[in-house]
Design goal:
This protein is α/β, with parallel strands linked by helices. Among the domains are: about 160 residues, Alpha-Beta Horseshoe (Leucine-rich repeat, LRR (right-handed beta-alpha superhelix)); about 120 residues, Leucine-rich repeat, LRR (right-handed beta-alpha superhelix). It is about 30% helix and about 15% strand. The strands form seven sheets. The chain has a nine-stranded parallel β-sheet with strand order 2-4-6-8-10-12-14-16-18, with no helix packed on it. The chain has a five-stranded parallel β-sheet with strand order 20-22-24-26-28, with no helix packed on it. A four-stranded parallel β-sheet has the order 17-19-21-23, with no helix packed on it. The longest helix is centred in the N-terminal third of the chain and has 83 residues. The chain is elongated, with a radius of gyration of 54 Å. It starts with a helix and ends with a strand. About 30% of the residues are buried. The N terminus is likely disordered.
């Protein structure tokens, strides 16, 4: 019993000790927290002040160090730059100056070129605007077009309008369907790369300048359906070597094949009744041609400049030979002029290889300059129907040795036989009432001249001749 009580007292004592210890520890912890809270502001202020003081000292030290090092650094940099700088000699300076001068001249020349090109473009633009020729497509469409080298025209098309493909210089070939009945003016003009084209049988007309300046076109077949070849239709087709005109064509237009420099042959059918003005002029490779009996007129300049043409047959159906019709056909050696044909001015002008010519009796006049400078012509018989010999008709025919003037002639024009230096004799018939100025001037081989008393003679008719005229 006593033991139990003693144990209880001991236990209570122990608990009391632990409780007191816990209370004391708790009190000490609270005091420590309060002390830290009281000291925290003072500690923060001390730290801030220490940081600012240290920063000021550091900044001051850096400034002083920079100021102390600056002169030395600047001096060192200057010395280093001077040491590293290259030494430029006088010769190098001269070369640099010359290079700058050359560059300056090139720059000025380039600027002038650019300005000239810009000025030309402006001029063209103003001209186009003045003529109301404003482009109907932008540059991108133009570039896209230029990539095309061939075109197939669909069957729905019935006609190719004027200037439809004008200036398509990149176009090499084109296919025209059977549905097309007409090719308009300048439709393929200046298609300078065009090498192949087929005109279908459905086409009845080829407009003026339709294929003008198609420089690369070597040949073309004109179908039987075509009835007319327009003005300048194939002019300046420099690569065109031959062409066959179908029987359906009735007329060859003015300038139709002008300046087809490579053309060596052409077949003109019996259906053609007229050959237009300068139709084949400048076809310098053309060696021969047959004009059919159906042709009634040869236009002015029709074969002028056909320098390789050696022979030509003019049928009896031809009633007129136009001015300059065969002028400058320098290889033409002979020609027969049929009955009832009139000869235009300068018809055989400068046919320097022409040795003989036969003029039929029905021809009534020899026009001005008709045989001018036919320097190989040796003799000529003027038919009895000729009433007049035009001005300079046989001018400078240096090989002409004799000529017979019939009783039908009533006048001899100015300088008609001037420069015929091989002419040895001449008889002027009683019918001649007037001889123009210088008619026989420069006929230095003329030894015999018979002139009727009734003939009026202008001044200098026989100047440069060896003998004076004798009265009959």
């Amino acid at each position: 019993m006593v033991s139990w009580k003693v144990g209880a007292v001991v236990a209570l004592g122990t608990l009391s000790v632990f409780f007191v210890y816990f209370c004391v520890a708790k009190k000490m912890e609270e005091d420590t927290k309060n002390t830290d809270k009281a000291e925290a502001p003072a500690t923060a202020n001390r730290r801030k002040n220490a940081t600012e003081a240290e920063a000021k000292v550091t900044a001051s030290q850096r400034k002083n160090a920079a100021e102390a090092e600056a002169p030395d650094t600047a001096s060192q940099r200057k010395n280093a730059a001077e040491a590293e700088a290259p030494v430029i000699t006088a010769n190098q300076t001269k070369l640099v100056k010359e290079a700058l001068q050359i560059w300056s001249r090139q720059a000025v020349a380039h600027c002038k070129h650019v300005e000239a090109e810009a000025s030309a473009n402006r001029t063209k633009l103003f001209k186009d605007l003045a003529e109301n020729r404003i482009p109907d497509e932008d540059e991108r469409r133009q570039e896209a077009r230029e990539k095309l080298t061939s075109i197939v025209i669909p069957d729905s098309v019935t006609s190719i309008g004027a200037s439809a493909f004008f200036g398509f210089s990149w176009l090499a070939s084109i296919i025209i369907p059977d549905s097309v009945t007409s090719i308009g003016a300048s439709a393929f003009r200046d298609c300078s790369s065009l090498t192949s084209i087929v005109i279908p049988d459905s086409v009845t007309s080829i407009g003026e300048k339709a294929f003008e300046v198609c420089n690369s076109l070597p040949s073309i077949v004109i179908p039987d359906s075509v009835t007319s070849i327009g003005y300048s239709a194939f002019s300046y087709c420099g690569s065109l070597t031959s062409i066959v005109i179908p029987d359906s064509v009735t007329s060859i237009g003015n300038w139709a094949f002008n300046e087809c420099k490579s053309m060596t042959s052409i077949v003109i059918p019996d259906s053609v009744t007229s050959i237009g003005y300068s139709a084949l002029s400048g076809c310098r490779s053309l060696t021969s041609i047959v004009i059919p009996d159906s042709v009634t007129s040869i236009g002015d300049g029709a074969f002028s400049g056909c320098k390789s043409l050696t022979s030509i047959v003019i049928p009896d159906s031809v009633t007129s030979i136009g001015e300059h019709a065969f002028s400058s056909c320098s290889s033409l050696t002979s020609i027969v002029i049929p009955d009832s044909t009139s000869i235009g001015n300068r018809a055989f002008y400068d046919c320097s290889s022409l040795t003989s010519i036969l003029i039929h009796d029905s021809v009534t006049s020899i026009c001005n300059y008709a045989f001018y400078e036919c320097s190989s012509l040796t003799s000529v018989v003027i038919p009895k129907c000729i009433a007049s010999i035009g001005d300079r008709a046989f001018y400078d025919c240096k090989s002409l040795t004799s000529i017979v003037i019939p009783d039908s002639v009533i006048s001899i024009g100015e300088s008609a036989f001037c420069g015929c230096s091989s002419l040895t004799s001449i008889v002027i018939p009683d019918s001649v009432g007037w001889i123009g100025n210088h008619a026989f001037r420069g006929c230095s081989s003329l030894k015999s001249i018979v002139i009727p008393d009734s003939t009026a003679i202008d001044c200098s008719v026989f100047s440069g001749c060896s003998l004076p005229a004798e009265g009959q």
